[in-house]
């Protein structure tokens, strides 16, 4: 089954004519993702990698029945791209673009409230359901079809952990990079709700990091509601307070949002935590 | 991004939030002149962007001309948490009837802007949130309609019994919210907000942080950045579009991706080493970016070993390898380099680097361990 | 049965300490309306006509279970009063205040969209269900309990027509002054939907006027959907174009929104139209 | 409230919407000077706030200095639909490649702000809406988020095939929307919006109407009101918080409530008379207000009979009666007064007026008929 993206995913690439957009369109096509359309306002009519390009997402949806969008536009235009996708009736938006002001995410969240649409990201590396579809920039070759769901706030750290999971002989049902910004469309708990109902998923790995209290809230949620085994990792144990560690959301405010606090609450909620990426894969391997 | 109290107060002034009569000074002479303008007693406040200025002796009330000179000299000569005090704010001593706290942030969990009020002023709000959460009154702004008047009135009526003061507070709350939204703040705080003896509300202290992602649309705010008091390596990294944070260890880390960069630091520490820095060279990294990264890294004289941890995706390992080769040549790198390069084009990278004298590692764990060994 | 206001109405008066607020509180109490609370920010704690005054609507609702609000505050504060009532969980707001900028009504409409709350007005004279409750400024003595529903865009013209209806020996189930502004919370059609399900209502009188196309839309709606007899009146047959006739919404734009156009469409949709207020009552009398 | 084209263009300028090079002039000499500044050919446009200026001869292109003088003199001397032309706009003659229509209003039915575009410029949009609605492309702004960029792009791409022009049009659409919202407009229209020979978009004409209910928060807009070209009775009524519109008949109507006031006019007409005016004295009417109303009414020399139609609710009939008595004394009213006063305190009113020489009516119908009879 998998979650979010699968064989029914019909993808429109927003910003397909850009450097990243065209490169990853090729990568996604190679992986077998059904990329059906591209959008770059003003460039409607051309083809990229054999994919028709439209001026508007609405037109792309009308002509190709696209249901999922991936956004590769520069940060200044990403907000508009998200609204356009929502208004066009896209049901899943994966925003790779980073650098969106937080207050715009506050507004987008409110705008999404009564819409039948889910946003993953911004600043997401993408979503992959191995063997079915890859939406975003995650490198396809590290994945293997399997029963471990992965949810992560970061990009390359996700590759690292997925790679370990694959190398210990397990595979993934779906891997979601939820993005490293303080306010994101889809949080750990939202993914867990989906994984709970996905028969293909037997265990879940949560890759968290410093900043905010999403991991903490998720731990309590898991303790109360989530029946499948969950494993955790938290990056940033050595991060100093009040410094932004790359991701806009990765910042310890005073003494809150530390890795130690998150690991502690994970453990209190019976979530096994790996000290290193390799250890996470070993923990999963031993349990399933 | 952070700014100084005096800069935040300039912004308050623009938004018609009352502040004390005050002047920013760089020298003792300027302080003396300012105190004569303002009248004694005066408060002298160190302008450094860290908490706990008061405890560190960075805030003093001077009642005489002698005290003015003494305190000004003392504060302008001190360091607070390692940061030298270069400016002070000289301010009228407001006769305080009551103090409270008013602050605005974006709540990550609720995904909404939240106004927080507390009847105790001068507190560390995160401390109160942990210890006595019921003492904080919160109202959420509607993300699309904004902070509604009645929500601002709620804040005012929570803090003050006197309706006149409560409504003045509501007006200040709306102004602070306007500022917060219009300037892409991540924190706008009046702590303490005081009622003076005449019943007027005054922002005695001001703190405004900004969302880095919003700065591109506020060049006037970007121009407020205090370059003097920032780490020069961090400034340089920012200019070169790299994410760098200086730490106190001796193993320099070069990583692609923020999460992996943190995990790399953690791993070094896990195996008994000390990371010298956080350094994310970003996604599509060119050889030039690797060069830039190494140049910044090497300005930190504590760095004894360099650990490259690259998981190629968009980042191509061969680009990184070329960058390392170029840097070795032009920067005269003496420190040993441990390289773990995996993913896109890793074979090409190995080919490029085979005679570069690097120590190769197959995994992160392996790389971290080798880096630590090299120190001994 | 009646609609909107009845014996279960528990009213909070926003702006109760003002001249109009206190005067009409007395009038509404005299009529038998259950006025349970008043609100004037900063005056919480006092009593007006024996009714407790609170600082906020939320507090009034919490302490008195008020479910309906009537707004008598000056126009500059009316927008805030409406939002406050919505946020406090009031389910029916009757806004008597006039002079609200149109764009604020556009926003309020959107804000109300997913809320369990109905707004009547602004610039409404109020709502009366004779014998049960009177909310607003309509003079109580002209009403009589009966089976005619009245919906009107104006104030005193409503009195005039209600008076005629009463004098021909009929009574009213509910009379709603929907307000004379271009954008209002509750329109003719909204009221008709409620009257359709109200067994006490046997016929409906619609009192329209120049400006906009609400009467026209309503006529087509009635033709298709509304089974009870409907009678109409349209004020402003002699109004010149492009002049605002008192009400903010009573303005003929070029050649659209004229009384002639409205009367024509009423008649096309089999709605009997009275040429004078007296004639309307006669038409109803003859039909029921 | 309406403003002149030249005033609307001043606002356009503030919002960076391109307009032609032009100057407003009051005299022929000013026109000549302006035309020398701008260069020939020039367009001279009458500044009156009614439609159909072109058809009435109020817009001319002058190619020579002689034409400039002739046309300026002709237009500055003319009346358009009864309104004397006091000012003209002298404008460069833009070389037009294409014309279209762009306008924004609040849609009463959808309760949203709507942007309307049409590929034909210079049209009467309400006429197009009736005859060829499919020629109008509409996009609705989200009331809380505003007009989203992609909606503005939709407008641009509808009007223009060239992406560069389409995006410039999108930018203009966003500016026009911003203006519309920020200034409480009820109509903001560029008609025509033209592409000149160099491919630039220019607002050749401009029309902005304002929501009267929003004017209180825009004193700068209120200050633009052209008092010269407004009916003096209407201006006076506005100052005195009365709603008055002058008509052409001879029966002066004084009514409480706008709907009833319209119905009263209609009834006079229905029974064969001609109403002289719309006049709403409002809700809680004092004797002074009645005095003010009569004073304004009597400035209209056509008024031969006065018809009071009052349905007392908040309005108390005795207040109205006192007002009538006072006015009769101080204004020396010669015209007969028909009074229909019912509702709150009607008995008291009868008592007050019993010796005032009025003609009383029991109903509206009765009153209207008696007023008409008095004219014969």
Characteristics of this structure?
heterotetramer, A: 288 residues, Rossmann fold, 2 domains, seven-stranded mixed β-sheet, 14 strands, B: 376 residues, alpha+beta, Dna Ligase, domain 1, 3 domains, six-stranded antiparallel β-sheet, four-stranded antiparallel β-sheet, 39% helix, elongated
Task: Describe the structure in your own words.
The complex is a heterotetramer, with two copies of chain A (288 residues) and two copies of chain B (376 residues). Chain A has 288 residues and is of the alpha/beta class. Chain A has two domains: 11-120, 3-Layer(aba) Sandwich (Rossmann fold); 139-287, Succinyl-CoA synthetase domains (Rossmann fold, 3-Layer(aba) Sandwich), CATH 3.40.50. Chain A contains nine helices and 14 strands. Chain A has a seven-stranded mixed sheet with strand order 3-4-2-1-5-6-7, sandwiched between helices. Chain A has a seven-stranded mixed sheet with strand order 9-8-11-10-12-13-14, sandwiched between helices. In chain A, helix 3 packs parallel to helix 4, helix 5 crosses helix 9 (277-287) and helix 7 runs parallel beside helix 8. Chain A starts with 10 loop residues before the first strand and ends with a helix. In chain B, strands 7, 8, 9, 10, 11 and 12 form a six-stranded antiparallel sheet that branches. A four-stranded antiparallel sheet of chain B has the order 1-6-2-3, with helices on one face. Chain B has three domains: 21-92, ATP-grasp fold, A domain (Dna Ligase, domain 1, 2-Layer Sandwich), CATH 3.30.1490; 96-222, 2-Layer Sandwich (D-amino Acid Aminotransferase, Chain A, domain 1); 231-375, Rossmann fold, CATH 3.40.50. Classes of the chains: A alpha/beta (288), B alpha+beta (376). Chains in contact: A-B, A-D, B-C, C-D.
Provide a brief overview of the structure.
The complex is a heterotetramer, with two copies of chain A (288 residues) and two copies of chain B (376 residues). Chain A has 288 residues and is an alpha/beta fold.
